[in-house]
Specification:
Strand content: under 5%
Mean pLDDT: 83
Order of helices and strands: HHHHHHH
Helix content: 55-70%
Number of helices: 7
Distance between the termini: 32 Å
Radius of gyration: 25 Å
Low-confidence stretches: none
Shape: elongated
Largest sheet: none
Length: 170
């Protein structure tokens, strides 16, 4: 649910006047006290500017700097999102997860919407239909495709293993 800036400021004022985040969440009907904590933390760092619309596009290197700062400073995801004025802590969590799984490539911006259908071009112009190939040529191609498939499977297994190791380290 989206909340207005005025509503957020009212909740923050309620908390700053000696109420707990949990009490404020109950009083204002907000599902989670962590939402209120995030608002209060962002307000303490940035003031009311924390709630102005912020549609910043982060580059992969900027995302990595945010994550590195979070790890070196020992910050929580909520504090990191408040410090950098990132509207939702789940954004930082998503960056962290994708970085742990795929490295810097996982932080590249994904295109939204449906992908464009591209016309397939034949890579090898001298490739033949299976019906026009000799038994030997078919066996050769099958061998090549099996080897290619094995390489891809091995690469995928190594990526999964690396992600598991990285997860254990943190």
């Amino acid at each position: 649910m989206k909340y207005t800036t005025d509503f957020k400021l009212e909740v923050i004022s309620y908390v700053l006047n000696s109420a707990s985040c949990q009490k404020a969440a109950r009083h204002f009907g907000i599902a989670s006290k962590s939402t209120v904590k995030t608002w209060v933390a962002a307000y303490r760092i940035h003031g009311s500017k924390a709630f102005q619309s912020n549609h910043k596009v982060w580059t992969p290197s900027q995302k990595r700097r945010v994550l590195n700062r979070m790890w070196t400073e020992g910050w929580s995801i909520n504090h990191t999102s408040a410090f950098y004025n990132i509207p939702s802590p789940s954004t930082v969590w998503s960056w962290k997860t994708r970085y742990e799984l795929y490295g810097i490539d996982g932080l590249k911006n994904k295109t939204r919407g449906r992908s464009q259908v591209k016309k397939t071009t034949q890579l090898n112009t001298d490739s033949k239909k299976a019906t026009d190939m000799t038994l030997e040529e078919i066996q050769e191609e099958l061998e090549y495709l099996r080897a290619e498939n094995a390489v891809l499977k091995k690469q995928e297994a190594l990526l999964r293993e690396k992600a598991a190791q990285t997860k254990k380290k943190r």
